[in-house]
Amino acid sequence: xxxxxxxxxxxxxxxxxxxxxxxxxxxxxxxxxxxxxxxxxxxxxxxxxxxxxxxxxxxxxxxxxxxxxxxxxxxxxxxxxxxxxxxxxxxxxxxxxxxxxxxxxxxxxxxxxxxxxxxxxxxxxxxxxxxxxxxxxxxxxxxxxxxxxxxxxxxxxxxxxxxxxxxxxxxxxxxxxxxxxxxxxxxxxxxxxxxxxxxxxxxxxxxxxxxxxxxxxxxxxxxxxxxxxxxxxxxxxxxxxxxxxxxxxxxxxxxxxx
Length: 258
Description:
Order of helices and strands: EEEHEEHHEEHEEHHHEHHHH
Protein name: Enoyl-CoA hydratase
Strand order of the largest sheet: 1-2-3-4-6-8-10
Mean pLDDT: 91
CATH superfamily: 2-enoyl-CoA Hydratase, Chain A, domain 1
Structural class: alpha/beta
CATH class: Alpha Beta
GO molecular function, one term: delta(3)-delta(2)-enoyl-CoA isomerase activity
Largest sheet: 7 strands, mixed
GO biological process, one term: fatty acid beta-oxidation
Strand content: 15-25%
InterPro entries: ClpP/crotonase-like_dom_sf (IPR029045), Enoyl-CoA_hydra/iso (IPR001753)
Number of strands: 10
Distance between the termini: 44 Å
CATH architecture: Alpha-Beta Complex
Number of domains: 1
Oligomer: single chain
């Protein structure tokens, strides 16, 4: 299969490339807000990676790195898409759950700001590598105001400690790389330009891939449900992400004033 591949082919939201055993999902559409079209494009790219994984007849060292463009990893949800698409948040849940239980190691290379849905996408990955000198993690729904349903809240509750979770959700606190590392919200920080963040994330991904290869197929089973095992790591999050979530009209009223 030839790489890079763009999704969709014309006016792409993301591009999938490959560096040896590491797949790189590069989001590069303005500030990478999540609309029906952009999430569908990313889901299509993820399917290509998973198909390659399942095509291997022996355990492999594949891993996935996701990164953004310029000063944004992702600026969150596309409000217009959220307001005008029935079942939009159900698609958001499906999208985040797909990343959460992806069968190979996933690393978010947080090159810049990761706000709201972008912050949640970073936490859906197994590991986070964040730029140390620029960019923030933030959940700014209280400032919109906007909804955070049980599935989205479950990701935050599981992935980070209670105090930074409170600060994110209730106070919209912005965490730079240094603060996020101190609170255990990210695993590594790197000083430098986005290319250096990506290079470090790829190295982390390679090391994780080698470890998983030694462990065989069990890595995928530990993260998600399979025919012979229930989800071990993320069962509670998956349960909440399966709950229908349809925000009240107050969200539409608030968002219409933005």
